[in-house]
Fold this protein.
Amino acid sequence: MTGAPYVSPDARTPAPRTPDLNGPIADAIGEAMHAAANYADTAGRFAEMRDLRGLAYSVRSAAACIGTAAELLSELTAPSRQGGRKP
């Protein structure tokens, strides 16, 4: 929904709002990206120590987190089954 939000003429009456069904998915994307950032930071530290085993693990873990975030993002941006419009 675009445009200005509904403003009730009565200040005590809350405006009706549609539920944000994308919120939990967006939260999960944020968590996955934070985890990816942590793994990337750890990968940098393993690289400095020349620890190839730790480096490989951290890089693979960061890539998995980014893949998860990308998959979740496709759920938010995929056309719906109702007329091919985006949600």
Notes: Residues 30 and 47 are 26 Å apart (CA to CA). The chain has a mean pLDDT of 83. Residues 23-77 form one domain.
